[in-house]
Amino acid sequence: MTLVLHGINVSPPVRAVMMVLAALNLPYDFKEVNIMKGEQLSPEFLKMNPTHTVPVLQDGDFFIGNSHAIAMYLAEKAGDNQLYPNDLQTRAALHQRLFFDDATLYAAFKTLTTPIFAEGHAEVPAKQRKAVEDTLDILGKLIQEKGWLVGNSRTIADICTCATVSTILALEPTLNVPQNVSQWFKQCEQLPGYAKDNKPGVDVISNMFAMKKKANAS
Fold first, then answer.
1. CA 2 to chain centre
2. For labelling alongside 43, which of 86, 96, 125, 197 has CA 20 to 30 A away?
3. pLDDT tens-digit profile of 11-59?
4. Residue 53: helix, strand or coil by DSSP?
5. Which CATH architecture has domain 3-78?
6. CA–CA separation, 214 vs 218, rounded Å?
7. Gene3D superfamilies under this entry (predicted)?
8. What is the pLDDT of residues 130-161, one digit of tens each?
9. Is-catalytic flag, 206?
10. Cβ(64)–Cβ(57) under 8 Å?
11. Of 1.10.10.10, 3.30.470.20, 1.10.3720.10, 1.20.1050.10, which CATH number belongs to 88-217?
């Protein structure tokens, strides 16, 4: 049975799953969820995911939310021990990076968007910019000698984190970014699915961000 991904491509977590699916070469159908119309609050959607967030992966009659949980599920399903290494300590380090992306980097993304989309600022305040730069500094300390987040090659941690970081850098391209983070991100731009599945959504949200800034300034 074909996998179904429910989501919207402006969402970094949704794009993360799309890139994981591309890296694993897994076919799937995409079902767009109209967040603006509140489709994520419909009874049908809440049956799939009571937390009313995207993405949601449907595998037959099984549903799972949260991009990182989905990424782990898909890698296990595909039996890919490179994208999701089965060594205990390597996998623990990978989980730590995933949780950093989920709890800290995604919060940094919202630190940029909230002043513009919710508070009416024309620019992101300096304090918030500095907080995001501090988070990127921490990311730099997590990158390994070989240039990836875990071990010697790409993993689902790199893919998921790339979706978040690509959005942050597109929204505020003048942020101070550690050199090794820039080098890591350059590698990530070559990931399977980056151009097809990630870049279009990044472009949409960055254009929305720029337009909202302009509107707030007028």
1. 23
2. 197
3. 999 999 999 999 999 999 999 999 999 999 999 999 999 999 999 999 9
4. coil
5. 3-Layer(aba) Sandwich (3.40)
6. 7
7. 1.20.1050.10, Glutaredoxin (3.40.30.10)
8. 999 999 999 999 999 999 999 999 999 999 99
9. no
10. yes
11. 1.20.1050.10
